[in-house]
Specification:
With 230 residues, the chain is α+β, with helices and mostly antiparallel strands. It has six helices and nine strands; from the N terminus they run βαααββααββββββα. The protein is 45% helix and 22% strand.
């Protein structure tokens, strides 16, 4: 089962914020349409509703924690950190609604081309650039930490190490003192770097650091574990 490791905002706050954004989007979305006469008609209001809905859908894809709280999979003697596949599938399905909405509006309404293109581009490209590409790229990546072993997959790099074969572990942190790489030094004098920053595991840095500090503390190289990289 998944264990939530970072609490979400209260539901009332999240829903209220989305409703506020929806209302603002509805108010300004009339700029996209060529409105005959002085005021929008019922058909135009429906088009404005669709634009606002597309903006909310975009936010739901980008704001993952609203629908997908950050969870870590607990297993026997350890934890598995990964880019959740079901989350990515649901995000992709939700995302498809966005281009469908803008195609429908373009085919059925008279639009002001520049505002329409700008709004459509933001709503369509932002989720792709912000979440979907990285999610697909890291679809199979994972880090598995147990009291007996370390396993990981990062694109083409795969590794599995029994703790008794590891001589030393170094936690590499950036200038903000945030963990982003793990270096393993084996008894056979091999050095392996696990690039957490390439595996879409940002949400788990604190939990990974905590697990290693507790269960691998005898292997940690204390004097370099907080040293920032250049």
């Amino acid at each position: 089962m998944g264990k939530i490791i970072r609490p979400r905002y209260p539901v009332e706050f999240s829903v209220g914020l989305l409703l506020l954004i929806f209302g603002l989007s509805l108010f300004f979305s009339h700029e996209i349409f060529r409105i005959p006469g002085v005021h929008p008609d019922e058909r135009m209001y429906f088009g404005m509703f669709l634009v606002s809905s597309a903006i909310i859908i975009m936010l739901l894809v980008l704001w993952e924690e609203f629908l997908f709280p950050v969870k870590v999979k607990a297993i026997e003697k350890g934890l598995v950190f990964r880019n959740h596949r079901n989350k990515l599938k649901v995000q992709a399905l939700i995302y498809i609604i966005i281009p469908v909405i803008f195609v429908f509006i373009y085919l059925n309404y008279q639009v002001n081309l520049v505002p329409f293109v700008v709004c459509a581009a933001i709503c369509i490209l932002a989720p792709v650039m912000g979440k979907l590409i990285s999610g697909i790229k890291n679809y199979n990546d994972f880090l598995k930490l147990t009291k007996e072993s370390i396993e990981y997959k990062n694109n083409k790099e795969v590794g599995s190490f029994v703790l008794t074969d590891i001589r030393e572990i170094v936690l590499i942190k950036d200038e903000r003192n945030v963990l982003h790489k793990i270096q393993l030094f084996t008894n056979a004098n091999h050095e392996v770097t696990i690039d957490l920053d390439e595996m879409e595991l940002e949400e788990y840095y604190h939990s990974i650091n905590k697990f290693i500090s507790v269960y691998y503390r005898n292997l940690l190289k204390a004097d370099e574990s907080s040293k920032p990289t250049l």
